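Field reference: sequence -> structure
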Amino acid sequence: MAIPVFFVVLYCLSSSHAFTRSPLAHSIKPSFVINSLTNPIGSSKRCPSPPQASFSTIFDFTLANATTKQKSASSFERIDDAIMGGISLSALRDVPDKNYASWSGVCRIDGGGFCGMRTLPFETPLNATGQDGLFLDCWLASDPEPERRMWKMTVRTDPSRGEQVFQAQFDLKRAMDEASKASHKDGDDVWARVFVPFEDFQLVRGPRLIPDGPKLNVSGGLYQIGLTMSKFRIAVTTTEVENFRPGYFDMHIQRMGFYVKDESDSLGETVVPDTLTKEEADRKRPFILKLLLPVAKLFFSEKANRRRSAMKILREKRNMSRVRAILFGIKVRKGSMGTVPSVMKTMGILGVDSFRSVLGTALKVVLIYPLRLLGIVFRTIKKALGMKVQVPLRE
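Structure field:
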């Protein structure tokens, strides 16, 4: 069943928490503290510094300060491919007694193909005026093939954009190779410093580049910052990474923050911004989203996505019919809950999935197809008048 675009937009709006823009901006003062970039506090790993720059650390996952480390890790939430019907799963975890946090998980290409994390909404927009971009001190610890995924940095500058955000791709392999070469050590003893200039960010919708979109303007502050690991490149049309490596990944992260190109080569003092709690963000949602969100969640249930994936595996790889696959599910559950509860649970699942299918078909007939038809008509009229036509999301 195709996922209605309307509910993709709705889900993304709700996930961005639809928080209200504040007239104030959270400011990180350039009060730099000189610190060795080749020997971070509490670590034997080396962190080369390619261009001369000053760094304002926003999130610090090192052992320099336990409170800062914990607050930095708790500032993020996951944003995986459930919105596309996928079953990927990832999380940023604080690693006790280690000089980093771990962003790890399993990326599946069945129905999706990306894992992501982002900050909870900042209480006030993060002031990025005068900064040249974002930096990330990290290392891919799970495997030596970062080039087989697409790595992206994300920023949100407008709370009303919904699924539209600014993204920039970065070359993790190049950063890791340069770090290893500069340190003359193995990967286990090296940290790569990734630089993502603000001028590299482009307006996207999902993995799709919005043609002729505005350039990133950080004068109004940043509302959220995130990272994405994906099988999709940023392009006008859907473009996948060749020989994409799905499955387990584990990125160790030490720091994330702003940088300014200058000659000081100094590491700034960490000022972790305050974020809204999930409960506070939920309360700030518009009333209409609170009403429609339960319906949206019906389409983006991760449990339902995993059931569909399991059904596909049983039917395609084990050559089971749908009925045999359902009976197999009852048999598996029977061992832990008994026959009657297993049958009842299976019937409940079938009922919910059937309702989802019927509702999806009804929405397509009364809403999605008419809207697509109107879109075709409007685009045809615009083309005839010589006006600019935006590429629709589904094409």
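Note: The first helix runs from residue 5 to 15.
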